[in-house]
């Protein structure tokens, strides 16, 4: 078996280091913030407010919904993957609408119907959605199976699952039935406002990045980093599920 020349081996090692740097940096950052920012986690102050509030309180719930989305790294990772190769605003609007519709349906339905699912399971599935979208962007399904899944259907389905994640958390706080529907709708409006704000920032950054020569050079690495983060989210939640038994 022939070995690479020294210069070729050195170049290969350097290339591997460059391709692995972003995924490893992403993993390190997520490991640093996860203890304080679990997927769908709610700050202590917001928990107390939700538990103690009664009656219709639209603006506070809109604020908390927007805050949740802007700080929800799992949602943002998935949305980042969804729009990664979308260039037309019409396409961006379609996929974001599908995600928002799915998210809204299960958030409201889950709380009002009192459907309880382990938050660890839901958050692990959300981590899987990030992995799925990264693989989709990398063209893995076409190469492996010769089949391209319907990305619109997948976006809607994962939107439904993301909504259940937050619905499960809200139920744990025993929110008051007084003004429940109005407050839930306000919270969901806040979530969508936060999503639009976060998406706007992502689109601006993506727009600048796409104009540079480095976009296509680093597109593969960026999606590998996203996939690594999704696997980390899955592992973290599965470990939590096992430990909590």
UniProtKB/TrEMBL annotation:
Keywords: Membrane, Transmembrane, Transmembrane helix
Top-rank taxon: Bacteria
Coiled-coil annotated residue ranges, if any: none
Residue ranges of the TM segments: 63-87, 94-111, 117-135, 156-173, 185-208, 220-243
InterPro entries registered for this protein in UniProt: Put_HupE_UreJ
Protein name, UniProt field: HupE / UreJ protein
Organism whose genome encodes this protein: Ectopseudomonas guguanensis
